[in-house]
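Chapter summary example.
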Amino acid sequence: MHYISTENILLIGSTLLMAGVLMGKTSYRIGLPLLLIFLLVGMAFGTDGLGVQFSNMHIAQFIGMIALCIILFSGGLDTKISSIRPVIVPGLVLSTAGVLLTALLTGLFVWWLSGMSWTNIHFAFFPSLLLAATMSSTDSASVFGILGTQRVNLKQNLRPMLELESGSNDPMAYMLTIILIETIQLGGHLSAWTLLWQLALQFGIGGAAGWVMGMITRWLIKCYRKIGSHGDTEVKEDVDQASSMISILTLASVFFTFAIATALQGNGYLAVYLCGIYLGNKRVPCGRGIGKFMNGMSWLSQIVVFLMLGLLVNPHEMLTVAPVSLLIGIFMIFLGRPLAVFSCLAPIRKITFKAKCFIS
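The structure predicted for these 360 residues follows.
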C-alpha cells in the first residue's frame, strides 16, 4: 500500500472482516477450525498475497493485548465455578508444571537439533529454552474459540479443565520468557528463587486483582442502576439503553483490571479471566445482555487477531526454516506436550488414558 489513509485502512479492514466471516462459514463443511480460516484469509491478503503491507509489531502486540483481554473475560463469564471446582488441581498443575515441562522438553529438542550439521539453526542452550518458552503455553483464544464452536459433549469435565488451563497458563510462560531473557543478558546465571518469587507475584497479585475487580465491577453496575433514583422511586430507563451502558461499563472495567494488575506486577490476563469468572457466577443486573455483548466482542476479537496474524506472515520467508520448524512442531504435538501432560496427571488416577490423550 503506497498511501496510508483513513479511507484505505477502513477499506482494507472492512474487506478483511467480510472475507473472513463469509469464508469462515465454509469451515463447518470442510471441517477446518474457524480460526485457521481467518489466519489463511489474512495470509491471502498479506505481502505474498494481495500485497497488504503490515509488519508493525508494536501495533500487533497492542491489538492482541486488547483482544485477549476480551476473549479471556468472555470465557470467564461462561465458566461456572461448579464445573471447574472438580478440575482446579489438574488445571492448575497443567498451567504451571505442564508449561514448565513442555518448555524444558522442547528446549532440549531444539538444542539437540542445533547441534546437527544438516539443520540451519544453531542455538545455545538458553536461547533454545527461550524459543521453547514462547511456545509452551496453549493459546487461550484458540482453546476458547474451538471449544465454544464445536458442539461436542466432552466427558470427565474436559472442557472446563482445558479452559481453566489455557486461561491461567500465561503467568508461567510469561515469567519463563522474561527470566530466560534476563539470564541470557547476564551470561547464563538462572536463579530458581527469582523464578519462584516472580511466579508467586504473577499468580498472587493477578488472582487477587481479578477477584477484587470482579467485586468492584459488580458494585459499579449496582451504582449505575441507583444513580438518579430518589428513595424508593427508580428512574425509568430504557431497558436496551441500560443493558448497553452497563455492557460498556463492564468492558471498561475489563481493561482497567488488566492495567491495574499489570501495574502491580501481577498477570493481567489471569486477572481478567478471574474477574469474568466472578461476575459470571454472581447475579448481576442485565447479566444476559452483558453476556451477549461480550460474546459478540469476543468473536470480533478472535477474527481481528487471526486476520492480523495472517497479515504478519510472509510465506516466502518460512520456506528456509520450514523443515526444522515442522520438526519442532511435530515433537511438541506427539512427544513434548504428551510427556508433560502424562507426567503432571500421573498422580490423578481418575483421569483416564483417553482423556489424557485428548488433553495432550
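To summarize the output: The radius of gyration is 22 Å.
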